[in-house]
């Protein structure tokens, strides 16, 4: 039973060290990002232009026209030689 206890303690210590290292690494990265942004100033926002109301849109629609009836000429005679 004591061997299993030693293994579980080792696993818990390994897990604790892993979590601690992950927290330290991410903390250092976030601190570096924060340090780089301290000296930077954001550009001033340009004044907003007043919103213009959109002009109405008019659709041009042609009226349907009746198709004129086709007037056909008298048929011509075709001769083959």
Q: What would your notes on this structure say?
A:
With 81 residues, the chain is mainly α. It has one helix at 2-38. The longest helix has 37 residues, at 2-38.
Write the layout of secondary structure elements.
Elements: H1 2-38
End-to-end span in angstroms? 117 Å
- The average pLDDT value, as a whole number, equals 85
Low-confidence stretches: none
β-strand number: 0
Fraction of residues in helix: 40-55%
Number of helices: 1
| Amount of beta strand | under 5%
Shape: elongated
**Main beta sheet strand tally, sense and closure:** none
Compressed to H and E, one letter per element, the order equals H
Over all CA atoms, what is the radius of gyration? 43 Å
Classify the secondary structure makeup into a structural class.
Answer: mainly alpha
Features:
single chain, 81 residues, mainly alpha, 1 helix, 0% strand, elongated
Short description:
This protein has 81 residues and is mainly alpha-helical. It is built from 1 helix and no strands. 46% of the residues lie in helices and 0% in strands.
């Amino acid at each position: 039973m004591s061997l299993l206890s030693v293994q579980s303690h080792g696993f818990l210590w390994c897990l604790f060290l892993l979590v601690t290292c992950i927290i330290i690494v991410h903390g250092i990265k976030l601190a570096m990002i924060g340090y780089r942004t301290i000296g930077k100033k954001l550009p001033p926002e340009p004044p907003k232009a007043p919103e213009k109301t959109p002009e109405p849109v008019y659709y041009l629609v042609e009226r349907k026209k009746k198709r004129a009836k086709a007037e056909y000429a008298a048929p011509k005679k075709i001769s083959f030689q």
